Amino acid sequence: MDLCEQSISGKLLQALGEFNRGDWFECHETLEDLWIGSEGEIRDFYQGALQLAVALHHWRNGNLGGAMSLLKGGAGYLRRVRPVCQRVDVAGLISAADRLRDELSRLGQERMAEADRSLFPRMVLVAVPCEEGHRVK
Predict the structure, then answer these.
(1) How many CB atoms lie within 10 A of CB 69?
(2) Beta strands in the chain (DSSP E)
């Protein structure tokens, strides 16, 4: 069974909300529940998203080294995953993680709090195209 092709699960939808609200520690906990016992591509997806959540948690706590390391590691796991998994824009997460890491590197420890929040990764759902011949009612 190809888990990336499935619709987003309720638990992943919960994690998405937590991630995008900035509840990064809670998101980490939710994703960890999904990650435990998973295998293959979906495991890399959960682990990559989990590491991005922890990276942002480290940023909020002023831990530049932790944020930088986990932004890189999380993006690395996500690079093993197709561009969209369970309707989540994985490619967009990777790009945002890389941009934020570059920004934090430029700012350094003393100015890391000044990071442009618009650069922060967000978990975004991608629309599923309608099959030809089917109308949406």
Answers:
(1) 16
(2) 84-85, 88-89
Q: What is the pLDDT of residues 11-35, one digit of tens each?
A: 999 999 999 999 999 999 999 999 9
CA atoms within 13 A on the CB side of 91: 4
The predicted-structure confidence for 54-75, as pLDDT tens digits, reads as follows: 999 999 999 999 999 999 999 9
pLDDT of res. 131: 60
Alpha-carbon distance of 97 to 119, in angstroms, equals 8
Do 13 and 20 meet the contact criterion of CB atoms below 8 Å apart?
A: no
What is the sign, positive or negative, of the torsion defined by CA atoms of 11, 15, 21, 22?
positive
The predicted pLDDT at position 136 comes to: 46
R_g (Cα) of the chain, nearest Å: 15
Judge whether 81 and 90 are in contact, CB under 8 Å: yes
> What residues form DSSP beta bridges with 89?
84
**Upper half-sphere CA count for residue 25 (Cβ side, 13 Å):** 5
Provide the β-strand partners of residue 84: 89
How far apart are the C-alpha atoms of 40 and 18, rounded to whole Å? Answer: 24
Average pLDDT taken over every residue of the chain: 93
